[in-house]
Amino acid sequence: xxxxxxxxxxxxxxxxxxxxxxxxxxxxxxxxxxxxxxxxxxxxxxxxxxxxxxxxxxxxxxxxxxxxxxxxxxxxxxxxxxxxxxxxxxxxxxxxxxxxxxxxxxxxxxxxxxxxxxxxxxxxxxxxxxxxxxxxxxxxxxxxxxxxxxxxxxxxxxxxxxxxxxxxxxxxxxxxxxxxxxxxxxxxxxxxxxxxxxxxxxxxxxxxxxxxxxxxxxxxxxxxxxxxxxxxxxxxxxxxxxxxxxxxxxxxxxxxxxxxxxxxxxxxxxxxxxxxxxxxxxxxxxxxxxxxxxxxxxxxxxxxxxxxxxxxxxxxxxxxxxxxxxxxxxxxxxxxxxxxxxxxxxxxxxxxxxxxxxxxxxxxxxxxxxxxxxxxxxxxxxxxxxxxxxxxxxxxxxxxxxxxxxxxxxx
Length: 411
Description:
Blueprint: H1 7-17, E1 31-42, E2 47-52, E3 58-63, E4 69-72, E5 78-83, E6 88-93, E7 96-100, E8 105-109, E9 113-120, E10 124-130, E11 133-138, E12 143-148, H2 149-153, E13 159-163, E14 172-175, E15 178-184, E16 198-204, E17 210-216, E18 223-226, E19 229-233, E20 237-242, E21 250-255, E22 268-270, E23 277-280, E24 285-289, E25 297-301, E26 306-311, E27 318-323, E28 327-332, E29 337-343, E30 361-364, E31 367-372, E32 377-382, E33 388-393, E34 398-410
Antiparallel strand pairs: 1-2, 1-34, 2-3, 4-5, 5-6, 6-9, 7-8, 10-11, 11-12, 12-13, 14-15, 15-16, 16-17, 18-19, 19-20, 20-21, 22-23, 23-24, 24-25, 26-27, 27-28, 28-29, 30-31, 31-32, 32-33
């Protein structure tokens, strides 16, 4: 399989993802600047640090209730720190804001801050950013909250709650006026502390009423959006949702090819400037997914098990995969193959607890930030050469990480 993207369209997409304004487009009182910030959660301590990526200085340290997983909003204005073991979600204002002005965009930089608004509910696990809001899914609460970001930044709460039928480890994604919600097996026999398995996906309208039939998706786990599509990992294949107007989104199951080895996708990433998805396929393989291609799947084998992976938002054809041997691999999503690799950390085995401290990846200003919890470092690796250019010392065990920033005009 190759992604069904004509070369001219690809070049246009790549150009559109690079947001530097041409000097001739800027007025005399404009100055081009860039700003990048890292947000790093500690594995051992309930704390999140904001770090200036340019000089490595700590901009803020925020004490939380417990172990946090970080998710950036779609706008980059906020970062959500979900603490499922303590039933709470904190929100951090990043201080990075872009405003579009047609021929250029402005960049405004302000202080980072822990917002006064928190969200509480039984085991908030998945946070899904989308447009001007984020969806918090409470595994043991039987609900999902749709959070308005603009209200958040004003210190207010504007929440719309969606019923999730029954507590389960699931997810909810908005698509226009509809919400796509995972469905648990309500008849499954479970132990007192055990959640029921997921069996599918349903579409609900603004009134919370189901639209159409339940779409089968056994053990649904992992979601992503790309262009106007949403995708969900299933045992049978990848379930794709497309906008469908007044009748609601249209759901289509892309079945795994019959010649694929045993496995399935449980984590998905969505392309930003091109429409495609990248997912895991078991622990030592990844799969490129082209919903509109003649062949939907292309399987890529890794030398060892995957520790983390992500897509480069500014270089749309690049994906980065860190494997447990400490190698960082560059995936060319157009060619559908690994094009180079280099060792960036010592080995981190996947054996042990799923939440043991292992490296995580983020992309900032053409560089890859790699947390190295064993050595209290964030390693900065050049995305082109894969050579380490510097390190940022971070107290404790730096773990979950997100990068926020870019370039724009400053008045």
